[in-house]
Amino acid sequence: MKIVIAGAGDIGSHLAKLLSTEQQDIILIDSNKEVLDYVSKRLDVLTIKGDSSSIDVLQSAGVHKADLFLAVTTSENNNIVSSILAKKLGSKQTIARVNKLEYLCKEQKEIFSELGVDKLIHPVSLAASEIKRLIELGSVTDNFEFENGKISLIGVTLRSDSVFIGRSLREIDEMYPDMDTRPIAILRGQETILPRSNTIVKQNDHIYFISLKKDVERLIKIMGRKSTPINKVMIIGGTDLAFVTAKMLEEDYQVTIVEKTKSELDRLIDDLNEALIIKGDASNADVLREEGLAGMDAFIALSPNSETNIITSLMAEQEGVGKTIALVDHPDYTRISQHIGIDTLINKKLIAANNIFRFVRKGKIEAITSLHGVDAEIIEYIVMPNNKLINKPLRQVKFPKNAIIAGVIRGEQSIIPTGDFVLQPDDRTIVFAVSNSISQLEEIFR
Q1: Burial class (CB within 10 angstroms; exposed 0-12, middle 13-18, buried 19+) of 171
Q2: Which of 121, 150, 159, 332 could form a disulfide with 414 if both were Cys (CB 3.0 to 4.6 A apart)?
Q3: What's the rounded Cα separation, in Å, for the pair 106 and 98?
Q4: What is the SS3 assignment for 323?
């Protein structure tokens, strides 16, 4: 598969990293030679220095033979123009990163489609949607639903009062035989562990579970986390992400926004209907306390400064706020969130890159999500009628060592499969896979 990526920033380089492990033919375009040199030394990709909105540059990149053209530079206009040109030159599919929220409305998306831009990616709205999911199930650090919640992926950090600590997964399973849940990954420090029946869980382990809907609340309680409903939410920052997040939350929650810049305040006041807008310096602990920080159920730090977001989230934790989410720019920060006391760190560029990633898959894929800090993905495949997986128990299937079938959705039925389970055509199969096994999975589910 030939893929041309315009833009070697955080989104483009992350996409190139994901794709380069799968023997794709990747060409990366950027006008910054230093950035290209940095990427080329670390990844097996071809780089071209130049403006991606130039026809000559696009032709030299071979977009006429491209299966996919991804325009993810920081310039919205450049992304749109280069995607249109790439399509006209012969690229089979184009995706453009945009900043204007109005472009996502149905009428404008249709116009872009007619021009040659097949899909628009808006990193801010994708990140806001992820924040909303995290708030809806407040006691977990990660929450991703398959088929409208028939099966859920949740992440929980083991606190000191959890009955799981010091027990093997086999013992835990025997303690709760009626629960349809399965641990699929453990993040312990910087290490990702694929859990086995003899794996012993420890305090501060961050465990990811696949669970049927009926068992989610019970699982959270057993894990030692209080399932406290979220009503009051404080957001700091007047960024685009803060605005879109507040817009998504204000009808269902009591939202307070703290921002000190007049221009940002004016926009928030003009465009939000229910949220309480406070003028103040969010980096000042006294200001946050005066505005009722201790009485909040959730704290969302979305200022432009990653360090401010981390520090204020830690302050919120100390004040007793049950749920904290912080926006960060540096991808490496996502690996340390649970160890410094913050429930979840999010990076909107990585969220956008992971969202784009699903479009380059060769298998029949319905959904994909990455786990924060874990070198793995959750992928939902549809089992095709001629697939070699069907008509045999899972224990007899030759499956990649670093991948497991975590759940199956069959019509209205949700299943956590055992080794005796037999897949059928059209089953929606939820697979947990470490990165180095994904190419094998694509061959299996193709």
Answers
A1: middle
A2: 150
A3: 15
A4: strand
Among the listed residues 368, 337, 336, 328, the one whose alpha carbon sits nearest the alpha carbon of residue 18:
368
Q: Phi and psi (nearest 5°) for 326?
A: -130, 135
* 298-301 vs 142-146, strand pairing mode: unpaired
Q: Domain of 32? A: 2-121
**CB crowding 302-327: b at 16 or more within 10 Å, else e:** bbebbebbbebbbbbbebebbbbbbb
For residue 130, being part of any structural domain is answered with no
Together in a domain, 115 and 154: no
As for how many domains the chain has, the answer is: 4
Question: Within a 10 A sphere around the Cβ of 118, how many other Cβ atoms?
Answer: 18
Write the DSSP symbol of residue 23: T
- What's the pLDDT score for residue 23? 64
Domain assignment of residue 385, yes or no: yes
Are residues 290 and 327 located together in one domain of the fold?
yes
* 369 located within any domain: no
DSSP state letter for 50: S
Q: What is the pLDDT of residue 140?
A: 64
Q: What is the CATH number of the domain that holds 42?
A: 3.40.50.720
Give me the helices (H) in 21-75, please.
33-42, 55-60
> C-alpha 174: how far from its chain's center?
32
Residues 256 and 324 in one domain: yes
Q: Which pLDDT does position 363 carry in this prediction?
A: 47
Average pLDDT along the chain, 446 residues, taken 10 residues at a time = 92 83 82 92 91 96 94 96 97 94 92 94 91 76 72 79 83 84 81 84 84 81 69 94 95 94 90 93 91 94 92 91 87 62 79 74 56 72 85 86 87 87 90 78 79
CA distance 235 to 242: 7
**pLDDT for the residue numbered 372:** 63
**Is 360 inside a domain boundary?**
no
Read out DSSP for 352-412?
HHHHHHGGG--S-EEEEEEPTT-SEEEEEEEPPTT-TTTTSBGGGS---TTEEEEEEEETT
Calculate the alpha carbon distances from 2 to 25, 67, 69 in Å.
5, 5, 9
Of the candidates 335, 372, 317, 374, the one whose C-alpha atom is nearest the C-alpha of residue 127 is 372
Nearest Cα to 61, choosing from 2, 21, 9? Answer: 2
pLDDT of residue 80: 97
